[in-house]
Amino acid sequence: MDVLIYLIPIALFLGLLGLAGFLWSLKSGQFEDLEGAKWRILEDDDLDVPAEKKTSES
């Protein structure tokens, strides 16, 4: 039972730390664009053109 003297404050501190992190993420706009992530996955903008095509086109 003596260990509860240490565990309860640690649990409360970790809970408050998690709550503070969640509130910070809300304030900084982490959850503003919920639709954009699912559409960004489908875009192929990050694909590079192979070097062979670059030289033959120029």
The figure for the number of domains is 1
Counting helices, strands and paired strands, the structural category is: mainly alpha
- Count of DSSP helices? 3
What portion of residues is helical?
Answer: 55-70%
List low-pLDDT spans: none
Q: Give the number of DSSP strands.
A: 0
Q: Termini, distance in Å?
A: 78 Å
Biggest sheet features: none
List the secondary-structure elements in sequence, H or E: HHH
The backbone outline, from C-alpha atoms, is: elongated
Share in β-strands: under 5%
**How many whole angstroms does the radius of gyration measure?**
24 Å
Overall pLDDT metric = 83
Structure in words:
- The structure is a single chain.
- This protein is an all-alpha fold.
- It has one domain.
- It contains three helices and no strands.
- It is elongated.
List its traits.
membrane, 58 residues, elongated, Cbb3-type cytochrome oxidase assembly protein CcoS, transmembrane, mainly alpha
Compile the SSE list and pairings.
Blueprint: H1 4-27, H2 36-40, H3 51-57
Short description:
With about 60 residues, the protein is mainly alpha-helical. It contains 3 helices and no strands. It has helices at about 5-25, 35-40, 50-55.
